[in-house]
Amino acid sequence: MIRRLARWGLRIAAAAVVAVAAGILVPRPLLPAPRADEAGTAPRRTVLLLSNPIHTDIALPADADVLARFAALAADGLPLDDPAVRWLVVGWGGRSFYVETPTWADLKPLPVLRALSLDRSVMHVALAGDIALPHPAVTAVDLDASAFAALLDHVEASFVAGDGGFRLVAPGYGAHDRFYEAHGWFNALAGCNLWTAAALRAAGLRTGAWTPLPLFLEWSLALHGQAGSLR
Questions:
Q1: Nearest-angstrom CA–CA distance, 161 and 167
Q2: Could you tell me if residue 129 is inside a domain?
């Protein structure tokens, strides 16, 4: 009995290793899409991939066009006109875990259970000042004008639209962040980092086919990301 359980344990571990390796090594899309040469036209725009051990966010530059695109956020008390704001940080995640766990000290069993099973999703929006570069938890991604526009389209489409804006779910952890209703359902195996990967793919980058952890996404970008876009 013990040997049988051990064999099953080894098989499960081997299957997990194969799944992780394939998720990183197999690119999505399989072939790089041709991109139009925009040299000499609009300058490239920089976004940031922010990582911690389990979660990734995308920081959009708080330029006039980006703030105008998400101007409806100001109606919920976010100070978009604060001159200290340099980045609009967005991320997708499970509603219960995201809203109820501002720090690891706030971790509770029920949000963890929902994250491991199935939960409604939210978009988290936060305003940030200067972000130091280089930094091991920050990857800068340079995009041409069309790729940057496609990324903004993907981010905006992730929100559930309300009356003239977005549907507020929770006030956030402080004065500079809010939670909004999002499209899709969250599960730990198809969670926040897969949303981030999809957003980067919308901008023309290639990622691994399945990257449920930030480290896997970072490795896959290093393998498959568009040359000259990452730094």
A1: 6
A2: yes
In the block, which residue shows the tokens 């957003």? 199
* pLDDT digit string, tens, across residues 124-154: 999 999 999 999 999 999 999 999 999 999 9
CA dist 100 → 49, 97, 108 (Å): 23, 5, 8
Q: Cis (ω within 30 of 0) for the bond into 61?
A: no
CA 198 to CA 216: how far, in whole Å?
Answer: 14
User: Angle at the Cα of 41 (from 40 to 46), degrees rounded to 5?
Assistant: 100
pTM of the full structure = 0.91
Paired strand residues for 177: 126
Q: Which helix (H) or strand (E) holds 143?
A: strand 138-143
Is residue 114 included in any domain, yes or no?
yes
Query: Is residue 141 included in any domain, yes or no?
Result: yes
- How many structural domains compose the chain? 1
Residues in the chain, total: 231
DSSP one-letter code for 101: -
How far apart CA 221 and CA 28 sit, in angstroms, is 11
CA-angle at 212, arms to 210 and 217, nearest 5°: 75
Q: What is the residue range of 48's domain?
A: 2-29+43-224
Long-range contacts: 151-154, Cβ < 8 Å, 24+?
A: 151/47, 151/58, 151/60, 151/199, 151/200, 151/202, 151/203, 152/60, 152/66, 152/69, 153/202, 154/198, 154/199, 154/202, 154/203
Q: In this structure, is residue 120 part of a structural domain?
A: yes
Identify the H or E element spanning 60: strand 56-61
